[in-house]
Amino acid sequence: MSSALLGHVKKAGLSGLFLACVLSAAAAQPLAIEIVSAHAGADQRTGLPIISFKMSQASGKQFAELTAKSVGRKFEVRIDGRAVMAPVIREPILGGSGQISYPELTAETAKDLAQRLSAGNAKVEFDIVP
Fold first, then answer.
1. Cα separation values, 33 from 18, 63, 91, Å
2. pLDDT of the chain along its 130 residues, tens only?
């Protein structure tokens, strides 16, 4: 995948802010989302590993607007350019936080990815699938 398609990612100083790109099918330009924290855990229902993340307040609002416009559509999640999941958006994702899980995710990988996300060393992209 070309870097032109990936948009941009940058770390904001020592604060641990991380910008991830959200690509909208309706918009030609990516929407940058600030991830302010991420941590590994386990899904309460299944016990499977997950990565929980929190966005800045402004990014959470933009993310909510994007998902509100995309209810019923697939939402591909990519980590470092690799598609890991593509759930259907059942309702707007509000509150500025989310979770990532996929079949190959192990507890060790979840911990590593959460640390990389918090440090700004991993790229997360969200793309509305046509």
1. 8, 7, 19
2. 333 333 333 333 333 343 444 444 444 344 657 788 999 999 999 999 999 999 889 888 988 988 899 999 998 887 887 888 888 999 998 999 989 888 889 999 999 999 988 887 777 777 888 7
> What contacts 116, CB < 8 A, 6 or more positions away?
122
Task: Please choose, from the candidates 96, 117, 95, the residue with its C-alpha nearest in 3D space to the C-alpha of residue 39.
Answer: 117
| Residue 78 contacts residue 84 (beta carbons within 8 Å) | yes
What span, in angstroms and rounded, lies between the C-alpha atoms of 101 and 80? 15
Taken in order of first residue, the domains within the chain and their CATH numbers are 11-128 (3.30.1360.200)
Distance CA(124)–CA(6), nearest Å, equals 10
Spell out where 7-123 has E strands: 11-12, 17-23, 31-42, 49-55, 75-79, 82-85, 97-100
- DSSP lists the bridge partners of residue 34 as 19
